[in-house]
Specification:
Number of strands: 0
Order of helices and strands: HHH
Helix content: 25-40%
Distance between the termini: 35 Å
Strand content: under 5%
Number of domains: 1
Largest sheet: none
Structural class: mainly alpha
Radius of gyration: 17 Å
């Protein structure tokens, strides 16, 4: 939140307020809904719409592509086989 000190955000309520105002959207600007990192470069999405959440997913998974394997998303850091009777989650 603009003008909010670090000290003011240290309470649970302060942290909740900060994230409500500055959601993690993975946009070009933190909390923004414009994107410049994929095939839909420069597009802006209405916050909360299906298109918005699909763009958030594309951005987040794209940024983390080095962590994905055939075993699943983030399989380089999460041992899916240890936590699934089938050995694969996605």
């Amino acid at each position: 939140m603009a003008g909010t000190s670090l000290l003011e955000t240290q309470s649970k309520e302060g942290i909740q307020r900060w994230w409500a105002v500055c959601p993690q959207t993975y946009g070009t600007v933190h909390g923004g809904t414009s994107y410049e990192n994929d095939a839909k470069s420069g597009d802006t999405f209405e916050f909360g719409t299906r298109d918005f959440f699909e763009q958030v997913d594309r951005t987040f998974y794209g940024w983390n592509r080095p962590l994905h394997t055939e075993a699943g998303f983030f399989a380089k850091i999460f041992p899916y086989g240890r936590y699934s009777q089938w050995g694969r989650w996605q």
